[in-house]
Amino acid sequence: MPIKSAFCELVGCRFPIVSTGMGWVATPPLVSAVCNAGGFGILAGATLSLDELGASIAAVKASSKNPFGVNLRADAPDAAERVQLLIDNQVRLASFAAAPNQELIKRLKGEGVLVMPTVGKRRHAEKVAEWGVDAVIAQGHEGGGHTGPVPTSLLLPDVIDALDIPVLAAGGFRCGRGLVAALSYGAAGIAMGTRFLLTQESPVPAEIKARYLAATLTDTLVSRRIDGHPQRVIRTDFVDALEASGGLSRLLLALRSGLAFKRLTGLGFFRLLSAGLAMRKAQGISLAQAVSAANAPMLTEQTMVKARIDAGILPTGQVTGLIDELPGAAALITSIMSEAELSLTRLSGMHHG
Ligand SMILES: Cc1cc2nc3c(=O)[nH]c(=O)nc-3n(C[C@H](O)[C@H](O)[C@H](O)COP(=O)(O)O)c2cc1C
């Protein structure tokens, strides 16, 4: 019996395995490889300009006939145009790191695009479910990039018990045993970032991949110093310096990467600063945190695109410590599914034996 789930039915993929929309990493070759292998790939859209996003969607469509998703930022100044692009291209699903507002959800759903935010707490999951999203990714503390305080093993039962829509498990997954564990909790599949970052099709420079492969389970940390929100990254000299630095040097760093962010999004520099000031007032955070909140993606570009470990961050799940090879995406998906089948056979043997 092939392993299928409500998520597979919802989006129309063969296996309950999702490759997430990692900024700078989830590019068309990775997304289409995952989709062609029976998984569901999500394109990184938040770190592309509007034109680049259009070109990337076209590139995925040209190399795979299967449905795929796009990751967006709900607070992007041109979010409405990006949403229209997804609608015009009949993209199957929009994913969001931070919850989109009700209006955006309604617009996407009204035009047949499924909506799937990532949540880190039961309360957030309940709120977005009430707003009508179609599925959620529940990401536990061990997961990569922005991450919440609750570990996957506790978040999953908490969120799954509260919701009656498909919940994908994220944070710490890499293999078939993990898939079976997630399904046992009642999840509709697994969503993996770090595991797909470490594949052949991932565009990340070889020396950066080597750094991930070398990391152990205790070589990551969760820092708030990058953009004010907890983000899991590999511990490097750059991150240590960021952790130790005062407000002024962080502000300078934020402003420097802010210039690059302006080129990418067209968000005016002074608008960025005034948005920062407003956020600072509203949330009581430092100006450095507020300004960098909008442009932190550029620190990921430094590493993922430019191979500058000294000038950027390496967002990662803790699972990097258990990954030591770079398979092709199709081989990875096949091996996860066959390990899951084996694991189920072993479990049913225990049950009958
Ligand atoms: C390099 C990197 C970049 C990421 N960028 C994004 C992003 O732009 N949007 C998003 O929703 N999640 C982003 N994430 C989070 C992942 O989509 C995913 O939820 C997370 O990696 C799952 O945990 P895992 O790494 O243990 O599999 C990123 C993660 C990594 C490792």
Task: State the main characteristics.
three-stranded antiparallel beta sheet, 16 helices, 353 residues, globular, TIM Barrel, alpha/beta, binds flavin mononucleotide, eight-stranded parallel beta barrel, 2 domains
Query: What class do helices, strands and sheet pairing give?
Result: alpha/beta
CATH superfamily of the largest domain: Aldolase class I
**CA-atom Rg in angstroms:** 19 Å
Number of DSSP E strands:
11
Helix content: 40-55%
Bound molecules: flavin mononucleotide
- State the low-pLDDT regions, or none: none
Brief characterization of the structure:
By secondary structure, the protein is α/β, with parallel strands linked by helices.
Verbal overview:
This protein is α/β, with parallel strands linked by helices and 353 residues long. It folds into two domains: 6-205 and 325-352, TIM Barrel, CATH 3.20.20; 216-304, no CATH class. Helix content is 49%, strand content 12%. It has helices spanning 6-11, 28-36, 50-63, 79-88, 102-110, 122-130, 152-162, 176-185, 194-197, 206-214, 237-244, 247-265, 269-283, 287-295, 297-304, 329-352, and strands spanning 17-19, 40-44, 69-72, 93-96, 114-119, 136-139, 145-146, 167-170, 190-192, 220-223, 231-234. The strands form two sheets. It has an eight-stranded parallel β-barrel with strand order 1-2-3-4-5-6-8-9, surrounded by six helices. A three-stranded antiparallel β-sheet has the order 7-11-10, with no helix packed on it. Strand 8, helix 8 and strand 9 form a beta-alpha-beta unit. It is globular. The relative contact order is 0.13. The site of flavin mononucleotide (FMN) has 28 residues, from helix 9.
